[in-house]
Each structure stands twice: as C-alpha cells, then as structure tokens.
Amino acid sequence: MLDSLLARIHQKHRTMTFPDGPPPELPERFMGRPVITATDCLSGCSRCVEICPTQAITQAAGLSLDIGACLFCGECARICPSRRIHFTKHYGMAVRKRDALLIGHAQKFQQAVALDQKMRRLFARSLKLRQVSAGGCSACEADTNVLGTVGWDLGRFGIQFVASPRHADGLLITGPVTKNMHVALMKTYEAVPEPKIVIAVGACAISGGPYRDHEEIHNGTCDLLPVDLLIPGCPPHPLTILDGLLRLIGRIETTLRLIPSDNLGSSAST
What we know:
5-stranded parallel β-sheet; single chain; 270 residues; alpha/beta; 10 strands; disordered C terminus
C-alpha cells in the first residue's frame, strides 16, 4: 500500500486537463482533418481518385473527399502533383450528419453540435453506452478502450461503458456490420430503452471502410440505424473520439469556420 502511494506521489497528476486545458501533444505522423485547396488540378489528372483504396475521392463536381470512407493513409496527398489535398493536425472531425463528412474546397466543415435541450437534460451528466463490435478489426475498439485509462478518465465526464444494453442510453458501434453480426446488432439496439442514441466510430462503422460493398457486410450502420454522431478515422485517435462525445453532450461548443489554407499544419481545433 505504501509503495502504491509513493508511486502516485512520484507520478503526480496523470489525467489530462482536456477540454479545459491544452490538448495532449499529437505525434508527428498524426493525420487529422484533411483540407482541399482552391487551386486547379492538372489537366486530365485523376491520380488521387485512382489510388484511393476506398473510392473516397471524386471529381464529378469538383474535387471532393469523403472522410467517412477515408482510411487516412495519406497516399492522395503524397501523389497529388498540385498539392491540393493536405492532412492537418485538426483532431476534431466528428459530425452529426453523414453528408457533413464530404469535404470540398469551399464549404464549411460542419463539426458536431450538441443534442437538443431535452436530450441534453437526460444525457449531459450521465451517458451510458453499450459498445458493439460489429465485425471490427479491434483498432477502433482499442482506441475507444483507451478512454477508460487514467490519462483520459472518460468517467469524469459522466460517460461510461456498460455491459448490458438494458442499462445503456445508446450504442457505440465499431466495425462494418458483417452479416453474422447484423441480427445481434439489431437486437442490441432494440434492447436499449427509449430515448436512445447511436454513435458510429471509424470508417468501417460509417461506410464499410476497406470492406465497402463486400457481399458479407452492410457498409456500416448508416443505412441500418438512425446515427446521431459519426466519428471518422481508421482508427480515429482517442482525442477525436473524446472530442466528438463531449460535443454531443454540450461540453464543447465552438464556432464553425473554414480552416485557413495558410495554417494547414496547425494543431488548434476549430
């Protein structure tokens, strides 16, 4: 017991101050919210479209990137001769609507806003979630589990994961929803009492990810359940997940704006 107390004194306070203090330092290789600049593509060039493993990039009505399908591999940014696509250090990528994950060069990025007043009264101080791995590879699951460690301490915000859907306020879903998990997911959703929320975490849960359009999956949750929060990434960083959850319950509120093209490497949140 004495050794444990001495260790705590030596380690001091380990839990980050986020969101009240500065966010933790992100690794150099971290790839956050992408930006598409207003410069023109080279005539006839479609290299980024061709190299994208999930067909997340289109050119039909101007260059557009679907970060709900993006694996954040960065190949599009590396191969683009016009340098139109950049991955910033912006970790805040959660949204409330599927079409808000489509990024062009002119529109604002619609970061997630809080639940309505009635739902916030129910969930802002106590949000219990049942996590469902619907055929995931365990990467999104691992980064979600990290939030329960002493460094993140998700429980201090009143957000906890529970074992039974009957004790939950909603579902946090990872994975592309394989056919083998479809019935289990739907039954779990039905077991959650009303009112309830659904959170899709990761490219697989949003769009099917690298398994998109495979005959054994359902391309994520968006066509199966009413999704209230979408958190993109492959996998999303724990800070991206935490930021999205806190925005949903109204703990973080910011003005939505474009990321300036001269600040592409900034780690500040918008």
